[in-house]
Amino acid sequence: MALRTIESLDGLSGKVVLLRCDLNVPLKDGTITDDGRVRASVPTIRLLLEKGAKVVVMSHLGRPEGAPDPKFSLAPVAVRLGELLGVDVAFSPDTVGESAAGVIESAPTPGVVLLENLRFNAGEASKDAAEREAFAAQLAALGDVVVSDGFGVVHRKQASVYELVQARPSAAGLLIETELDVLDKLTENPERPYTVVLGGSKVSDKLGVIGHLLPRVDALLIGGGMLFTFLAAQGHRVASSLLEADQLETVRGYLAEAAERGVEIVLPTDVVVASGFSADADHVIAAAYAIEDTPFGASGIGLDIGPDTASAFAERVRGSKTVFWNGPMGVFEFPAFAAGTRAVAEALTQVDGLGVVGGGDSAAAIRQLGFSDEQFGHVSTGGGASLEFLEGKRLPGLEVLGWES
Fold first, then answer.
1. Per the record's keyword annotation, is 4Fe-4S included, yes or no (predicted)?
2. Which of 15, 259, 260, 328 pairs with 130 at a CA distance of 20 to 30 A?
3. Which of helix, strand or coil describes residue 115?
4. Strands of the 270-274 sheet, one edge to the other
C-alpha cells in the first residue's frame, strides 16, 4: 500500500484538520534560536488553508516528563509561526478538553490554532498502549481528519504519531513526502560515487547505519567524537578523547567487512587536540596516530578533525554524486573547533548531485555556522528518523500512513 497523501482526503473545506508537526525547536530565554523546523511546517499548513480547512497544529517540545513546565511551552512557536504564515495563530494553553475545544471553535475557518506541548500530557509518550490510546481519543475529539507531518518523530510510537492517525481519516503532509522522496534516492539506486559522512559523539549511535550502508556506499568518512573509537580499534592511543571501549571489536569487524567489500572507510590523518573541553582551551594539530605526543600528553582531548583531514574530506564530498552527512566533525559550538564541520558543510553545498544534511546536530551546525538551508540539496528535519530509515528499521509513524519499507 502506498503512502496516503493529502490529495487522498476528500473535501477539506470547513473541516478541522489535526496537523502533527515537529516544532521541537531550541529555545534560549524564551527565544527560538533555530526556527528550521517551524519553517519546514509552513508549506503543509498553507496547502491546508488553501483547501479551506481550520488547521489545529500540534507538537512536542523538549522532555517535560508528562506534566506542564513553562520552559517547554510552545507559546513562542505560535508567535513565530504566525510571522512566517502572515496570519494570526491562536494559541491554546491546553492540549485537550473543553478549553482547547473552545479555542479551536472560536478560531476562523480557514485559520490556524497551535495547541500547547503534547508532552505536558503523560499519555503522549507513555509506553502503555492503553494510555496512549486514551490520549489519542481526546485529541481525535478536537478534529475531523489527521495530517501527520512531523518527520522527526515518525520513528516513535507515540499517541499523536501512531494511535491518533488510526483514529481519524489520515494522510501524510508535504514534509514527510519530501523527506521520503530524498531518502528513497539515498537507498534505491543512488548516483555514484555515493559517500556518507558520519560524525557526532558516539559510535554506538551509528553502528546500525554503518552496518546497513556498507553494502550500499562507496565510501564512509568518519569524524566527530566517534573517530577515536575507530582509531583505537586500529591500535592507536587516543589520550583522553572520547572512546567507547566496548565497541572496539564491533568497529574492527566493520573495518574488516569494508575491506572485503571494497568500501573505503576514511579516517582522519590529523586531529585538533586540546588541553581540555572548553572554548578557550589551548590546542595543537597532531597526527592521528600520535595524539598522545602533544604537550598535553595523555590528558589531551581531540575536539575536531585536523586541517589536512578537513581538506581531504571536502575533496571527497565535492567529487561525489550522492552525499549523506549526519553528525558534526568536531565541537562546532566552540569556534576554535568548528573548522572541520565548516569544511564539510561548504563542500556539501558544491556537490554536483544530491547533498543531504541528515538533520539533528548537523542541521543545527550549518545554521550556526552561517549557511542557509537553500544552499544544500536537502536539510532533513529528523536526524534520528533519517538514521533509522537508513538502517532499514520499521518506522511506526510511517506504517500507519500506508508506507511500506
1. no
2. 15
3. strand
4. 283-287, 270-274, 301-305
